[in-house]
TrEMBL record:
One of its GO terms (biological process) is fatty acid beta-oxidation using acyl-CoA dehydrogenase. Residues 122-243 form the Acyl-CoA dehydrogenase/oxidase C-terminal domain. GO terms for molecular function: fatty-acyl-CoA binding; flavin adenine dinucleotide binding; glutaryl-CoA dehydrogenase activity. The keyword Protein biosynthesis does not apply. The lineage of its organism: Bacteria, Bacillati, Actinomycetota, Actinomycetes, Mycobacteriales. This is Acyl-CoA dehydrogenase/oxidase C-terminal domain-containing protein. InterPro entries: AcylCo_DH-like_C, AcylCo_DH/oxidase_C, Glutaryl-CoA_DH_mitochondrial. SUPFAM superfamilies: Acyl-CoA dehydrogenase C-terminal domain-like.
């Protein structure tokens, strides 16, 4: 797919995600060729689709398709796959009864499970990483615009050094996470995906913290768009392992191995 076609697809996807979510969005994405893209060009599909989910605040069950495809199952199947969650917990993305939302799980159709079993999650971690990055960029955009619009002492708060430092720290974290997500991971895909998910989760949490501070009191209200993204990233960070847990796991693995593999050619 050339760049022009990719740009046109992004425009179409963004419009679709801004107007639909849940099962309605699932159907729309299927019509737009989601399954074919995942099968034929996953390196393009994952960043594009999941980043846009984060930026628009929509949700779709395509994460289940990523797991199904990685484990050799049929894309679109309604089989329930327990997914690891922070704190040694398990959740299932409910494709059959998506209206049954747990209010503590970021508005996503996730159902808590008592136990699960090991499945391949490397590709899914990359997907969730892009979802987190997209949500972090959405929060940064909200905070940046507020900083430009909000006037104190006769000038926009964007001119204040403390505000600019918070926005800059957020942007650096997001860019770093994106760089980690784009690593090829040829020699050690599981470790690369684990570190990428951890970096994305940390970046999104940094964005949530800094952007709430920039927005001030309004950033803590349910009415502001930031609240939706904050709740979403708190859940997405925990899905498939939190940034804190994955960082500890990576460190323990490297200590046991006694060496650090080369993940990127610098």
């Amino acid at each position: 797919m050339d760049q022009h076609s990719l740009d046109m697809l992004e425009v179409s996807l963004r419009k679709t995600m801004e107007s639909a979510s849940g099962p309605e969005l699932d159907a729309a994405l299927a019509n737009l060729g989601w399954g074919d893209m995942l099968t034929e060009v996953p390196e393009l599909a994952l960043p594009l689709y999941f980043r846009l989910l984060g930026e628009t605040g929509a949700h779709a069950s395509i994460l289940v398709d990523v797991v199904l495809h990685a484990t050799g199952n049929t894309i679109g199947d309604t089989v329930e796959l327990p997914l690891p969650f922070a704190g040694n917990a398990w959740v299932v993305w409910d494709r059959i009864s998506p209206e049954s939302l747990d209010p503590t799980l970021g508005g996503l159709p996730l159902r808590r499970e008592e136990e699960g079993y090991p499945i391949r999650v490397a590709e899914a971690r990359v997907a969730v990483g892009w979802w987190l990055v997209g949500a972090a960029r959405a929060m940064l955009a909200l905070a940046r615009q507020h900083a430009l619009d909000r006037v104190q002492f006769g000038k926009p708060i964007a001119s204040f050094q403390a505000v600019r430092h918070r926005l800059a720290e957020t942007l650096v974290a997001i860019e770093g996470a994106e760089a980690t997500l784009t690593l090829p991971g040829v020699d050690n895909p599981d470790l690369t995906a684990l570190l990428a998910k951890a970096a994305a989760g940390k970046a999104a949490l940094t964005a949530a913290r800094n952007c709430q501070q920039v927005l001030g009191g309004i950033g803590f209200t349910e009415e502001h768009a930031l609240a939706h993204h904050v709740k979403r990233v708190l859940v997405l960070d925990g899905l498939l392992g939190s940034s804190k847990e994955l960082t500890k796991r990576a460190g323990a693995g490297l200590r046991a191995r006694g060496s650090v593999p080369r993940l990127a050619q610098l």
